[in-house]
Amino acid sequence: MELDPQPSTDTLRKPRVAVMKFASCDGCQLTLLNCEDELLNIADRIEFAHFAEASSNLQNGPYDLTIVEGSITTEHDAIRIRELRAQSRILITIGACATAGGIQALRNFGLHDDFKRAIYAHPEFISSLDQSTPIADHVPVDFELRGCPIDKQQLIEVILAFATGRRPKTSTESVCQPCKRRGNVCVVVTQKIPCLGPITQAGCGAICPAFDRGCFACFGPSNDPNVTSLSNSILQPNLSKSQAALFLQSFHAASLPFRQEALRLWQLSPIQPPPK
Amino acid sequence: MHDNSRNIRVPILTRVEGEGALNIRLEADKVHEVQLNIYEPPRFFEALLKGRPADDVPDITSRICGICPIAYQVTAAQALEQCLSLQLPSELTLLRRLIYCAEWIESHVLHVHLLHAPDFFDCHSAIDLAKRFPNEVQRGLKLKQLGNRILEVLGGRAIHPINIAIGGFHRLPKIHDLAALILPLEQGLSLAVDATRWLATLPFPNQRFPYDFVSLTHPELYPIESGQIAIHSHNQHPSSSNTNHPPIGVDDYEKYFEEIQVPHSTALQSRRIRSHSIPSEPSTYFVGPLARLFHNHPRLTPVARQLFDELHVDPSHYNPYHSILARALEVVFAFEEAIRILKTIRKIDLPKNPKSPQAGIGRSATEAPRGLIFHRYAIDEQACVTFAKIVPPTSQNQGQIEADLRSLLQTIYHQEDQQIAVACERLVRTYDPCISCSTHFLKVHIERI
């Protein structure tokens, strides 16, 4: 979607921002409240017209900028997101749930009714869809900010960029680049620890390798990742087919490149994917 | 429909974590129905853990809640360590307690300053509150930042930290990074004391609800990551405020508490099992900071203990609005405890105890910022999960919140609908409900018929 060069019709007016939640853990919205040093400055430059977690002053749209957290998992939410899009000049999504379906998209691989029966004695009271889907599957999205959770500095950049009508500057390199810059010793090369860094978009600051563990792709697939090659060269020498598949099936399980490779691995595996 | 009956609806209960609604139906001067309607979409965590390696569980369960991920990570890790018969050396247990203190600071300060305090000054948000109390709000943000700083050093990042592993940690923090936290935390302690004194001047509504307080209790320490479960039955001896059952072991939790499903909520509600209760007493119970203080205030750290006495924070007044003070005191405690741990910690040899896969069952209960949290897992001989049960604090408090609202409505039903809605919303907020946890927005709905 083309960006409107004018942030608002009245250039003196602060942009009206809405923060909306769908199926999620609240962690990405919390990132906004975690902008301790910058929070009051941001609040000076924009108006939070609808931010239920932070304010009981809830105003109706239209909004200049709508920030969406969470995935679509119910009929009601599928309708709500379309109404919200109609009320929003710019709509951006934040976090793995909103951009990829989140951890709850694991249900896309399993039997949804079995999940409901496993937890609720009266599954008939529970209305939810059999797939957890990203916002962009339902409405046009102007920008997607990845992460589980998103990064604070990236969020500030995105809000201020859209509030002033420019494109945000966020990295699209893979985790390997910031990992080298951080001075981490490669966990794959030196410790044979399975790591998704080479196929994962940067943004977290390469935290996991700095803590002696492999990247598990909180920020989702990088541009054009060769997942099969990484699976053959880094995952499978150290993991069984089913373990490798599960390693790809976490917070971005429903992202296409990860999903394809995971399903391929399950076909090769003697073990059936959960849930049985 | 009767003429003297009404339906009141407040569509969104705000400044809480997650999405829910409150449905209230008033019939003349009678409260017909009160439902905490949690419509946060279900995310089926227990089901999606099945078949996954035990190692995945701390990271996945942390995504139940972005505000208290450590509660999930530590409780899951401890339960799975029991499955695997793993014992942790005391230094690693201390580091777990340290990162948990950080979460208490971050979560409590968020609630106290950004979500709850605005209610006492009729402000919509902390941003509004900051116009009247810029220094107090800035102080809150500074305190929150300090909690997050410990999380970053020990956990890698503030939200969904990545360093808790089964058997300990993935990597040990550097001793000098830990030592560098002491001075800022000592400054933080002093700010936390000032914040508590400020909060003690708030105009608290006068309210007294009989609670059955449930929390962990520990013989020497204010409980966080371990202890037995203390149950206080308010109605057992009405003449005395301090008669408790003998504490029960964590492994017996499910003998005393059960989860039930109600049609209006995607979160299961917890109840005390009747056979263990006195027949006439209510089966709802209260978990959270007031319950912890009730059972454990003698074991607060020195400064927190002194403030407790000085400010007359008495949990046996059963006033839910005092929760904000209880949280502030626990922030003081968490700073003192974090400093004590940082000064105690010596060099640690290994980040985690090596494990070998074995089948087993494990349970753990810890004190999340919002109250008791219980996990039970079963794993197979490959250490893959075959069963998971997670009982977060808010699903335990849900029944109590409804009971409190019923009592409150008896005294305010004659007021205007808008006033009633605001009062109900404020009462719910004292619980710091985490609906993302209980499955996961809160709406108040009042219907008068």
In terms of topology, how is this protein built?
The complex is a heterodimer of chains A (276) and B (449).
Chain A: E1 16-21, H1 27-33, H2 36-45, E2 47-51, E3 63-69, H3 75-86, E4 88-94, H4 95-100, H5 112-119, E5 143-145, H6 152-163, H7 176-181, H8 187-191, H9 207-210, H10 227-235, H11 241-248, H12 256-268
Parallel strand pairs in A: 1-2, 1-3, 3-4, 4-5
Helix pairs in contact in A: 11-12
Chain B: E1 5-13, E2 20-27, E3 30-37, H1 45-49, H2 57-62, H3 69-83, H4 90-116, H5 126-132, H6 134-155, E4 164-165, E5 168-169, H7 175-199, E6 214-217, E7 228-231, H8 253-256, E8 257-260, E9 269-272, H9 289-296, H10 302-311, H11 323-344, E10 360-368, E11 371-379, E12 385-391, H12 393-412, H13 417-430, H14 435-438, E13 442-448
Antiparallel strand pairs in B: 1-2, 1-13, 2-3, 4-5, 6-7, 8-9, 10-11, 11-12
Helix pairs in contact in B: 3-4, 4-6, 4-11, 5-6, 6-7, 7-11, 10-11, 12-13
Biggest sheet strand line-up of chain A: 2-1-3-4-5
Order of helices and strands of chain B: EEEHHHHHHEEHEEHEEHHHEEEHHHE
Q: Strand portion of chain B, in percent?
A: 15-25%
Query: Oligomer, anyone?
Result: heterodimer
Uncertain segments of chain B: 236-242, 440-444
Structural class of chain B: alpha+beta
Radius of gyration of chain B: 21 Å
- Counted by DSSP, the helix tally of chain A is 12
- Amount of beta strand of chain A: 5-15%
> Approximately how much helix is present in the residues of chain A?
25-40%
Assign an overall shape of chain B: globular
Number of DSSP-assigned strands of chain A: 5
- Total of helices of chain B: 14
Structural class of chain A: alpha/beta
Give the termini separation of chain B. 6 Å
The helix content of chain B is 40-55%
The N- to C-terminal Cα distance of chain A equals: 42 Å
Q: What does this protein structure show overall?
A:
The complex is a heterodimer of chains A (276) and B (449). With 276 residues, chain A is α/β, with parallel strands linked by helices. Helix content of chain A is 36%, strand content 10%. Chain A has twelve helices and five strands. In chain A, strands 2-1-3-4-5 form a five-stranded parallel sheet, sandwiched between helices. The longest helix of chain A has 13 residues, at 256-268. Chain A starts with 15 loop residues before the first strand and ends in an 8-residue tail after the last helix. With 449 residues, chain B is α+β, with helices and mostly antiparallel strands. Chain B contains 14 helices and 13 strands. A four-stranded antiparallel sheet of chain B has the order 3-2-1-13, with helices on one face. In chain B, strands 10-11-12 form a three-stranded antiparallel sheet. In chain B, β10 and β11 form a beta hairpin. In chain B, α6 runs antiparallel to α7. The longest helix of chain B is centred in the first third of the chain and has 27 residues, at 90-116. Mean pLDDT of chain B is 89; it is low at 236-242 and 440-444. Chains A and B meet through α1, α2, α5 and α9 of A and α1, α4, α5 and α6 of B.
